[in-house]
Design goal:
The chain is an alpha+beta fold. Among the domains are: 169 residues, no CATH class; 80 residues, no CATH class. The chain is built from 18 helices and 13 strands. Strands 1, 3, 7, 8, 9, 10 and 11 form a seven-stranded antiparallel beta sheet that branches. Strand 5 and strand 6 form a beta hairpin. Helix 7 runs antiparallel to helix 8, helix 7 packs parallel to helix 10 and helix 11 runs antiparallel to helix 15. It is globular, with a radius of gyration of 23 Å. Bound molecules: adenosine monophosphate and magnesium ion.
């Protein structure tokens, strides 16, 4: 049977001007081997649920079967606030688009596929360590309900890759509804190629924002959508305690999906100034700064679209950002605390809670999960998480008073809260344990963690220890841009 099963492929992006992409053959990895295959996602795409040799050859660059037409995309972007015109797929290739059974279309992309014309000083490779992090995190976010690129499979190899030490080259097979980034539009704008910008805009509206097509001002309608989805995405990151780490405009998806995983991190203790990227010396991409950066990046996008959208319209679209983000964040906080109705005092209740968590360095995820157990475990285990017990008791008293204005029973509320407050998240130390084992040739922990993170809201008692606080060695972990 064909390894491609009944999968359906297309190549729409390939029809755009060659100024936006170049054909590049992947450089094969030596002795490739499967680390993991996302069987459930594969089935949704009509691909085999078991990884096979023919697919391994194709995804690791040894063969280029018929549906694959590898291209490297050209884009640019603002990195840490400075414009860099020289970006593009330096190590990733878009192979084709693949159509899911349900009708969705995904770009199928391999990250770590070798040199391209945009590799600059890089080697075109991705190491196993960072590929495992991207693989696990994209699926973890998906199962938390956060828009994200997906991961279909992960390949390791014997190809040596030199970072701080010698590592092995890996390929993460990434799916995204689109790989079009803010930086694509910036590239067209800053090179003065307005025809190209228009072509890309028309393509993006037609393929990714079909509802905007019939609007009076399709480009403006598209920008408005991008503002809304980006605001909602960043509200979700902050509500779940996720920090992206490198929010450059080339890492911003036009579709508001979490994109390009590098030195990301989930909060352990609640610290608003948490910087997960060891190379982010100024804290530009600190956890609490993500909402501001989202707007900064959207403003950069809006500027790139200025040849085709009037200034007043751009401003009006950008003005949607803050209220949308606040509204989404407040909805998520109400879900996390089980408050269905909206009361004036809620804002103060939430901000006082954040202060309590921050002052007492309380583990963010464990706190909300424990708050979701008031129905069967009472308040004591919540208070036990907080050093200042009087302050904890004070906040809980207010919270319980506030709950009296709700109509749900304790049990109904807590049951619903457990669907919004995960027990399991991809903490750095969990990823690190899986990486250490995989680097020693044992991929079983990647598989186990993948399985646990598929059901973040379920109790999964056999995996209880995956919800533990990080061990002391985890505080020493430094995650940098090196990948
Ligand atoms: P990132 O920080 O991973 O978003 O990458 C920023 C830019 O550098 C992108 O254009 C990447 O394609 C490129 N890049 C990152 N790592 C490498 C590498 N090892 N070889 C070639 N290009 C790379
Ligand atoms: Mg990137």
């Amino acid at each position: 049977m064909s390894p491609w099963f009944k999968a359906k492929f297309s190549h729409h992006f390939h029809t755009l001007s060659p100024l936006l992409h170049q054909s590049v053959q992947p450089t094969p990895l030596e002795h490739p081997q499967w680390v993991h295959w996302n069987d459930q996602l594969a089935l949704e795409l009509n691909l085999p649920d078991q990884p096979n040799q023919a697919m391994l050859q194709a995804f690791s660059g040894h063969e280029c079967p018929n549906p694959f037409r590898p291209i490297a995309m050209k884009y640019a972007g603002h990195q840490f606030g400075y414009y860099n015109p020289d970006l593009g797929d330096g190590r990733g290739l878009l192979l084709a688009e693949i159509h899911a059974i349900q009708g969705e279309r995904y770009d199928i992309h391999i990250k770590g596929a070798g040199l391209t014309p945009f590799s600059r000083q890089g080697d075109g490779r991705a190491v196993l360590r960072s590929s495992i992090r991207e693989y696990l995190c994209s699926e973890a976010l998906f199962h938390l309900g956060i828009p994200t690129t997906r991961a279909l499979g992960l390949i390791n190899s014997d190809t040596p890759v030199y970072r701080e030490k010698t590592e092995t080259g890996a390929i993460c097979i990434r799916l995204a509804h689109s790989h079009i980034r803010f930086g694509h539009f910036e590239h067209c704008f800053y090179t003065g190629q307005h025809d190209l910008l228009k072509q890309l805009l028309d393509y993006t509206v037609q393929h990714h924002f079909p509802d905007c097509h019939t609007q009076e001002k399709p480009y403006l309608a598209m920008l408005q959508q991008v503002v809304l989805t980006t605001a909602q995405l960043i509200a979700k990151w902050n509500a779940f305690g996720f920090a992206h780490g490198v929010l450059n405009t080339d890492n911003m998806s036009i579709l508001g999906e979490t994109f390009d995983f590098g030195p990301f991190g989930f909060l352990d203790n609640y610290q608003p100034n948490f910087i997960c990227n060891h190379s982010d010396y100024q804290g530009r991409y600190a956890f609490a700064n993500q909402p501001n950066i989202g707007l900064w990046n959207l403003t950069a996008l809006a500027h790139a679209l200025s040849p085709f959208i009037e200034r007043a319209d751009l401003d009006q679209a950008l003005a949607l950002y803050e209220p949308t983000l606040n509204q989404e964040f407040s909805l998520l906080m109400r879900q996390k605390t089980g408050l269905l109705s909206q009361q004036e005092e809620d804002q103060a209740l939430f901000s006082d809670l954040f202060r309590l968590l921050s002052d007492n360095q309380v583990d963010y995820t464990r706190f909300f999960r424990q708050l979701s157990q008031l129905d069967n475990q009472g308040t004591q285990p919540v208070i036990d998480l907080i050093l200042d017990r009087d302050a904890a008791q004070g906040w809980l008293t207010r919270y319980q008073h506030r709950l009296q204005q709700e109509t749900q029973t304790d049990q109904q509320r807590c049951q619903a809260m457990r669907q919004h407050n995960p027990k399991y998240i991809l903490r750095n130390h969990l990823a690190q344990i899986a990486i250490d084992k995989a680097e020693a040739g044992d991929y079983s922990e990647v598989a186990r963690l993948f399985q646990v993170l598929k059901k973040p809201f379920d109790e999964q008692p056999e995996f209880d220890h995956y919800a533990n606080l990080p061990p002391s060695w985890a505080h020493e972990l430094e995650i940098s841009c090196s990948s």
